[in-house]
Amino acid sequence: MDALMSSLDTLVTNPDLAPLLSLFKGIRNGAVYGAKVRFPHALVMIFLFRSGTIREKAKLVFKATRQHARNLATFALIYKSAMIVLRNINPAEVGKEGRYDSFFAGLLGGYAVFGRHKTSITQQIVIYIFARVVLALAKLSVRPNMHPLSSLIGPDARTKMESHAWPVFASVSWALVMYIFRWHPETLMSSLRSSMVYIYADSDHWDSFRNLLIHNK
């Protein structure tokens, strides 16, 4: 057994196999992370808010977990494969990563995995990513030498903008979602809409103490 493990260690540390093995580990890590993130979330949400038998709910939990894991594993495979290809066709220097390789690899993976298959799971992942991108872009927008107007932002103004960025983002996000929920609820994702109905709309209706505090309806 020790000899076998030693041989495997030698094999997996071979630098010539590193690109191929990085694909394998990317798939593995994407699947594991997707399962770890989705399983507890799906377990709680489905068992609390979905109707059906325990068997039916368990199937839904498994389906959601499998889809999330598959999505992240597939994206990792496409992204890392594209990065390898782009490095090896770099006209400036073969084998060197280009400045925008990650952008184009992400574009390809994003379209293939999330753009072509619109489901509740893919929507949730993309919206999660989008929110983080907006916050990151807000931080980048006030960094020195990031764009032509960077020179107009002094150190004091930069500090104030950074300290107020999150309160503004949080306040405007909630203002917009509540306005949309009030006047155009059909445009929101069904999961978000149902949770908002439960909290903000159903709380306006009751006809007894029982459905005021014990049961919703």
UniProtKB/TrEMBL annotation:
Xref: Pfam families: Tim17 (PF02466)
A cellular-component GO term for this protein: peroxisomal membrane
PANTHER family listed in its UniProt record: PEROXISOMAL MEMBRANE PROTEIN 4
Name of this chain's protein: Peroxisomal membrane protein 4
Originating organism: Aspergillus heteromorphus CBS 117.55
